[in-house]
Design goal:
homodimer, 169 residues, mainly alpha, Arc Repressor Mutant, subunit A, 2 domains, 8 helices, 2 strands, DNA-binding
Chain lengths: 169, 169
DNA sequence: CTAAACTGCTCTCGTTTTGCAACTGGTTGT
DNA sequence: ACAACCAGTTGCAAAACGAGAGCAGTTTAG
């Protein structure tokens, strides 16, 4: 099976790797939702990916070195998927897509709040979040900063919107 | 024909619009190669898109408001495709993808040089290039800056690599 | 004036990808 | 022992993709 590239253009090559409707959603769920097991990715996804597609995409993400896999010592059947440095560095791509989508598409309030904050935060916030991801996915210690982490702030903002919407009915 | 969204997440919505292997390549060619006619997009593409796919993607890009269409007064059969503001603002997405691809994938030198410069140039350079695109695609005058434009600089760098490679044979 | 080349597509048809749903073989908790 | 949970796999129909030919009208070269 010879994988032939259509061209050596970096944009094209990137699209050949993650240019489909699911791969980046899986990366998103690993980044922002901290989904690390197959079942978590399968059932806790907003969009409802099907299991064969998930299995296939995880395989190519592994092949590409975007994601790594390890045994979960607490459970013989479970594996833990982690983002590699290469995967973590997809964050700016996701952040730009999120910002563009937030600006131009019909985004729901609770799912858009993270995009808004991330877009406003800019490269500085992205770098901080990537450091947090390096800690959780690669085990690389980072310097603690005062106050809540970027991940915590995003999550808190999301939950706040959900709570408000629930109250309003 | 009811278009149902999988979710209201901005990343998902963006992927539903441009998350395929061709749409962003068309935008890329319009941005960096100034391809404005159907034939230009069809025949001058690095990757060799086929005509039915090109027609289909242009249709959805038009529907989405990423691209606009106008008659070419110089030729009764020609139409001119232009990027809208919404389309121009895909530049940061492309730039991030280009930067990531340049760093991690097997990019050829001549096709990677633009990505390198754009990545190094950062948001400031992107903003300048977007202003140039607003001029050529939207007809919005911009303040002239001294020296060559970003578009010219990228093109010159590309041609320099091509010339050097040709000499080396 | 005529013919060749060019224009933006559309059509056909075989191949590939998608996605639902059921199923497998094993593990864990009660 | 048994239900619930784990990571996938398999079968199949529908949809999307993609190469190539074709088309009606337009422009250009001789």
């Amino acid at each position: 099976m010879i994988e032939q590239k259509r061209s050596g253009c970096p944009i094209n090559l990137t699209l050949e790797v993650v240019g489909d409707k699911w791969s980046l959603l899986i990366v998103r769920d690993m980044m922002f939702g901290n989904r690390r097991h197959f079942r978590e990715l399968l059932t806790k996804s907003e969009e409802g990916i099907s299991s064969n597609i998930l299995a296939d995409r995880l395989k190519t993400l592994l092949d590409q070195g975007i994601v790594t896999w390890a045994d979960d010592p607490s459970h013989k059947q479970k594996g833990i998927y982690s983002l590699s440095e290469q995967g973590i560095e997809l964050l700016p791509v996701l952040a730009q897509m999120a910002g563009w989508g937030f600006k131009y598409l019909d985004v729901t309030e609770e799912l858009g709040i993270r995009a808004k904050l991330l877009s406003e935060g800019g490269p500085r916030m992205w770098a901080e979040f990537m450091d947090e991801l390096r800690e959780t996915h690669l085990g690389i210690r980072r310097k603690r900063k005062a106050g809540p982490s970027v991940g915590e702030r995003l999550q808190a903002a999301y939950e706040k919107v959900v709570a408000r919407k629930a109250k309003q009915g």
